[in-house]
Amino acid sequence: MKEIRIALAGVGNCASSLLQGIDYYKNSKIMKTDSVSGLMHYDLGGYMPKHIRVVAAFDVDRRKVGKPVFEAIASKPNCTKVFHRISSRSTVKVDMGHMLDGVSEHMESYPEDRRFLAAHKKPADIVSVLRRSGAEILVNYLPVGSEKATALYAEACLKAGVSLINCVPVFIVSNASWAKRFEDQGIPAIGDDIKSQIGATIIHRCLTKLFEDRGVTIDSTYQLNVGGNTDFLNMLNRKRLVSKKVSKTEAVQSQMHEPLNSDNIHIGPSDYIPFLNDNKVCFLRIEGRGFGDVPLHLEMRLSVEDSPNSAGVVIDAIRCCRVARDRKIGGALISPSAYFMKHPLKQYPDDTARVMVNDFIAGKRER
User: Fold this and answer.
1) Around 122, how many Cα atoms within 13 Å sit in the side-chain half-sphere?
2) pLDDT at position 61, please?
3) DSSP, res 351
4) Amino acid 28: pLDDT
């Protein structure tokens, strides 16, 4: 089985968890078990996590640029949990990316170990690096609000013939014009805005659908999230949150027969609490009416390590993208995007999307 060669745009906490996980699931004892904890699929279309290899990476922080990628993921301001010591030592180094709108100015006022430190170097030619490295798939891990920077990497993918997995809430793969460009060039893409394995949005979607399936009328709901990583620090700039709030809100509203009025639904990041580090805490409330219009209220608190919570989903997305490349399928991948992403081109209930993904893996045609 050929390796899957990936590039990373952003070497932050999510990249750290992804690379720890790829190495973790190479363990021979894990490979011999029928059910693997933490993964939705261990063998996906003949590809295992061990087949994924990082061949290029981009960042703009001076503590990461120029370093081997497996050193860079341990550099500040990364603060995610180290659940596995990586045994392999790749010589792939982090190239200087393009700054554009990738970093919010307000982060300059925070301590060095918490904020971004600019690497004042000439940006690499993204297209040339992708071609030279032999990358097949680019995983976009740029900060929320990086509209221009994400578009630049998407353009580079189109020029280099590289697939895009867009893990951030910038609408590329879910935009019909962008999706058509990937389709016209026969390049598969998955996006936008990664769902976590068991995260705030996936639970909110499931509970919303459960309420409506059981005949409960939802009157109002909120989802508040706090955390202490650079993602939450970045999102203190509310101007960068427009697409994030749209993505998370549409993900929940799509599960309702009738969307709620905007005054009755609030979903989005709420605050930055430094000592939480990569721990994310969600407070969720749904107010509804059951039999006889009798009030029914649900409140929930969820605490998770934010970055590992999405890494397993990304490992599946990478392998689905490679399967699509093997089968010469181009454009937005409907089933994987619907199951793995908050803001896909087409929304489906999660149980339906799961069946669709398994059908896709088995070789059945997309809907």
Assistant:
1) 2
2) 95
3) H
4) 52
Which runs of consecutive H residues, i.e. helices, occur in the chain?
13-24, 28-31, 69-72, 126-133, 147-160, 176-184, 200-213, 230-234, 242-253, 308-326, 334-340, 350-362
- Average pLDDT score over the chain: 94
Q: Which position has the higher pLDDT, 114 or 295?
A: 295
64 vs 95: CA distance, rounded Å: 9
Please tell me the number of Cα atoms within 13 Å of 129 on its side-chain side: 23
Q: What is the pLDDT of residue 29?
A: 61
Instruction: Fill in the amino acid letter for 240.
Output: R
Q: Which of 223, 225, 227, 189 is nearest to 206 (CA)?
A: 223
Query: How far is residue 72's CA from residue 75's CA, in Å, rounded to a whole number?
Result: 5
Confidence (pLDDT) at 45: 95
Q: 215 burial class (0-12, 13-18, 19+ CB within 10 angstroms)? A: exposed
> How far is the C-alpha of 310 from the C-alpha of 144, rounded, in Å?
15
Identify the band that residue 365 occupies on the pLDDT scale cut at 50, 70 and 90. confident
Question: Which tokens is 304 given?
Answer: 């998770």
Phi, psi of 312 (to 5 degrees): -65, -35
Q: Do 130 and 157 contact (CB within 8 A), yes or no?
A: yes
